[in-house]
Amino acid sequence: MKKLTTQPSTANAELLFDLGVWEEAWKNRPRSSRYKQKSAPFNTEEAFERWARNYHAQSFTEEGKNRSARIMGWIENQGVTFEGASVLDVGAASGIFTIPFAEKGARVTAVEPSALLVSLMQETIPAELENNITIVSERFEEISISDKGWEKQYDIVFASMCPAMSDWETIEQAIHCARKYVYVSTIAGAKEHTLMDELRTVLDVDAPYKAGDMAYLQQLLYLKGYSYTMIITREVNDFEIQVEELIQQLPEWLHTYEMPTDAVALSKAETYIRDTYTNGLIPFSRGARFGKMLIQLEQAHMKTVSAVKK
User: Fold this and answer.
1) What is residue 154's three-state secondary structure?
2) How many Cβ atoms are within 10 Å of 249's Cβ, its own excluded?
3) Confidence of residue 307 (pLDDT cuts 50, 70, 90)
4) Could you give the CA distance from residue 211 to residue 271 in angstroms, rounded to a whole number?
5) Hey, how many other C-beta atoms are within 10 angstroms of the C-beta on 121?
6) Phi, psi of 252 (to 5 degrees)
7) Which residues contact 221 (CB under 8 A, 6 or more apart)?
8) Any idea where the Methyltransferase domain is (predicted)?
């Protein structure tokens, strides 16, 4: 892979605008899934089930539904109409967007490979919306869209924080499914976690630098000549966890944030937690910057939405 030199030069400038360099860098950047690694120091199946059920429960609280409404509102403000539209929801999870899309009158195909998340979605879909939603329990990146007949078949392709959207090849497959719009959201920088920052100091571990997928996506869309609208937001929320619950999940948390999980590290971390949070409750903040991208395929010109009359 080509690399930038340490001195300013025309070669460096050419690399910054080299499609091949950006595609290769994105495809080959270090990545991992805490739920798929066989060497993970915890039961990945149990951890995924716990995450899935918690995610589902949080998604359908009032706060979770309001968050979905805000994202859909931002999309609508770009001129998108869901009523009567065909939507491909990639990485639909338990239906946090699939269901409100259908409520707005869209016909939705929800792609979700997890059997657990699919079952949670099926339990949550109101009976009156069942005919508006088709569930495809497959990995989007492994689907042949020509075999499915999905080429240019959807008005909108939507992928919110979908792990599959982590290289240009998969993004391009999503674009090939869409007639009008593709929405993609990803991490846009390093994750923030106040408790993990404390433990990094205790364990003398530096935080790894991660640019986030949005940096690659934005640059490639720009270089390939696509029209798009994007917004970067910082979203941080406050949480609490019981000391004993955290101690039980400590190998998973440390592994997720790329810290050592050997016996010495776990002992140091546990001692710090017990000595620091003597009341048994740990408050912390967690979040990140997130990028939201709406690719406009049908019309290259800026769209405007009429102002609401007061």
Assistant:
1) strand
2) 15
3) very low
4) 32
5) 23
6) -65, -45
7) 228, 293, 295
8) 87-179
